[in-house]
C-alpha cells in the first residue's frame, strides 16, 4: 500500500494495490500491521456504507467531539466524490484549512480523516456508494457539524449552492466561526 502525504500532515491518501485478471480483481484495502508500520496505529470499530442516488449530494461537514471523536478511512465502491477534511483543531497551524480529494471506483484511492477534522463529500456521479471505517461508534450527543458552503472555508465542491442536494440537518449547520464545539490542537512528536 502506498501512502501519500497531503498539505495537512495528519490527513493521508492511501493507494491500495489492485491485482486484476480476466476474472476480476483482488485488493487488500486495509491491513492493521501495514498501517501501524506507516505510523497509523488505528482501531476501527464500525464500517458504514452510504448510497447516493444523484450527483450533487452533499453530506457534511460532520464530526464527533471527544471522548467519542472519530477518525474515518473513506473509499468509494461505485461512482465518484470530492471528499473533504477540514482542520477544526483550535491552535493548529492549519486550522480552517482543508484537503479535498477525488475518490472514485476508478482511482481506488482512500482518504484518512483523523479525529479533529470535519468531514464531508459531494457526489460527482449518480449511484455513488461510499464505505468508511470509523474509530469510534456513532454518538448523537457528541455529533456536530459545520455548514458545507461556509465562505471562510472556500471549498470547491464541484456543485453550485442551488444544485446541491442536502439533508435538512445539513442545511442549518453553523459556520466555523460560529461553532463553539471544536477540538484543541495537541502537538505530537
UniProtKB/TrEMBL annotation:
<feature type="site" description="Participates in a stacking interaction with the thymidine ring of dTDP-4-oxo-6-deoxyglucose">
    <location>
        <position position="138"/>
    </location>
</feature>
<dbReference type="GO" id="GO:0008830">
    <property type="term" value="F:dTDP-4-dehydrorhamnose 3,5-epimerase activity"/>
</dbReference>
<comment type="similarity">
    <text>Belongs to the dTDP-4-dehydrorhamnose 3,5-epimerase family.</text>
</comment>
<dbReference type="GO" id="GO:0000271">
    <property type="term" value="P:polysaccharide biosynthetic process"/>
</dbReference>
<feature type="active site" description="Proton donor">
    <location>
        <position position="132"/>
    </location>
</feature>
<dbReference type="GO" id="GO:0019305">
    <property type="term" value="P:dTDP-rhamnose biosynthetic process"/>
</dbReference>
<comment type="function">
    <text>Catalyzes the epimerization of the C3' and C5'positions of dTDP-6-deoxy-D-xylo-4-hexulose, forming dTDP-6-deoxy-L-lyxo-4-hexulose.</text>
</comment>
<dbReference type="InterPro" id="IPR011051">
    <property type="entry name" value="RmlC_Cupin_sf"/>
</dbReference>
<dbReference type="GO" id="GO:0005829">
    <property type="term" value="C:cytosol"/>
</dbReference>
<protein>
    <recommendedName>
        <fullName>dTDP-4-dehydrorhamnose 3,5-epimerase</fullName>
        <ecNumber>5.1.3.13</ecNumber>
    </recommendedName>
</protein>
<feature type="active site" description="Proton acceptor">
    <location>
        <position position="62"/>
    </location>
</feature>
<dbReference type="Pfam" id="PF00908">
    <property type="entry name" value="dTDP_sugar_isom"/>
</dbReference>
<dbReference type="InterPro" id="IPR014710">
    <property type="entry name" value="RmlC-like_jellyroll"/>
</dbReference>
<comment type="pathway">
    <text>Carbohydrate biosynthesis; dTDP-L-rhamnose biosynthesis.</text>
</comment>
<keyword id="KW-0413">Isomerase</keyword>
<dbReference type="InterPro" id="IPR000888">
    <property type="entry name" value="RmlC-like"/>
</dbReference>
<comment type="subunit">
    <text>Homodimer.</text>
</comment>
